[in-house]
Every structure is written in structure tokens, then in C-alpha cells.
Amino acid sequence: MKTLIVYGTRYGATEKAAHMLAGRIHGEIRQINLAKGSAPSPADYDLVLVGGSVYAGSIQKEVVQFCTANRHLLLRKPLGLFVCCGEEHKAREYLQNALGADLVARALALGSFGYEFDYSKMNILFRLIVRVISKTGKSEFNLREEAIRDFAAQLPKS
Ligand SMILES: Cc1cc2nc3c(=O)[nH]c(=O)nc-3n(C[C@H](O)[C@H](O)[C@H](O)COP(=O)(O)O)c2cc1C
């Protein structure tokens, strides 16, 4: 089975999550950071997994563009959607707002994989914002391995 994993990330949490997810899937896997590489057509894959992270309520525009450009194919493909975000219970809402309710309804698996706040990577503005959001003032590394495992378990194996 051929699987395509495409994702958007700003500071690497979603990339880490995508790699962890790839480790739980069998067969041939291609991973694409949409900000760095142009994505192949989903038509060439048996399973497509699309992820991004949330900033001020929005998922990366390259993720939205990928889904818009491939909308008709994705509506017919085995599909999984995931996000990394601080407000983990809002994952479905974020995905629906960004990608459309029809795509979300069509997905075999929806994942909320946790989040990271890495102060060493953020600019000063983002540090200030996160200090308000998180209240701890410290970097936090909270990717949820069990959420990634549960997501992978809902995907077709062959
Ligand atoms: C400036 C800023 C704004 C954020 N806004 C939101 C938000 O609106 N909702 C949310 O759930 N998480 C929010 N987050 C949390 C990020 O989605 C989280 O840190 C995520 O792990 C980032 O993943 P990435 O490194 O792959 O970009 C925000 C983080 C930052 C730094």
C-alpha cells in the first residue's frame, strides 16, 4: 500500500508528529512538508494523510491550498486529517473551518496530536503570545503518542 503524508508546520511539531505517524504505518510512505516540496498528486496513492498546525485559529495556507486543489480526488480517497494545536478539543472545528465540513465528514480518521511550544524557536512576538496562552512561561513538548497510535489504528492496513 502507498501512503502520502503531507503537512504544514511552523516550528516542527507537526513534522515530528508526521514522522511518528509514519512509523506506525506499513507499506511505502512518502512524507512532504508542503512549505518545502511540491506535493505529488494524491491520485498515485492508496491512502492520503493531511496535517497542519493552528495559529490564531487557522491552519497553514499551503495545507488549505493542497486540499482545495485536490478536493475532488480527496473526497474519493481513503483520507485521514490531523492537527497539532494547543486547544486540542477544537481539532474538528479547526479542520472544518479550514478544509470544509464535507472533507472532514469523509475522513476515516481525525487526529488531534497535541502541541509543542518551543521558546528557543519562536520570535519575540510569538513568545509573548504563548506566555499569555500557556501561562507557564516555559517550553512545552506535549505531542500525544497515544493519539497518533489511535489515529493509525483507524486507517486501512492494505
Ligand atoms: C503565536 C501562536 C498562536 C497559536 N494559536 C493557536 C490557536 O489559535 N489555537 C490553538 O489551538 N493552538 C494555537 N497555537 C498552538 C500551536 O498550534 C502549537 O504550538 C503547535 O504545536 C505548533 O505546531 P508546529 O510547530 O508544527 O507549527 C498557537 C501557537 C503560537 C506560537
Proportion of residues in helical segments: 25-40%
Number of separate strands? 8
Shape: globular
Mean pLDDT, all residues:
96
* N-end to C-end Cα span: 6 Å
So how many helices? 7
Major sheet description = 6 strands, mixed
Bound molecules: flavin mononucleotide
- Strand percentage, roughly? 25-35%
Structural class designation:
alpha/beta
- CATH architecture level-2 label: 3-Layer(aba) Sandwich
**Which oligomeric state applies?**
single chain
CATH topology: Rossmann fold
Low-confidence stretches at least 5 residues in length (pLDDT < 50)? none
Q: How many separate structural domains?
A: 1
The CATH first-level class comes to: Alpha Beta
Give the name of the CATH superfamily: Flavodoxin domain
SSE pattern, N- to C-terminal: EHEEEHHEHHEEHEH
Cα gyration radius (Å) = 15 Å
How would you describe this structure to a colleague?
Its cofactor is FMN. The structure is a single chain. The protein is α/β, with parallel strands linked by helices and 158 residues long. Helix content is 37%, strand content 26%. The protein is built from 7 helices and 8 strands. It has helices spanning 13-22, 61-69, 71-74, 91-99, 101-106, 124-134, 145-153; strands at 2-7, 28-33, 47-55, 58-59, 79-84, 109-112, 114-117, 140-143. The strands form 2 sheets. Strands 1, 2, 3, 4, 5 and 6 form a 6-stranded mixed β-sheet that branches. The radius of gyration is 15 Å and the shape is globular. The site of flavin mononucleotide has 23 residues, from helix 1, strand 3, strand 7 and helix 6.
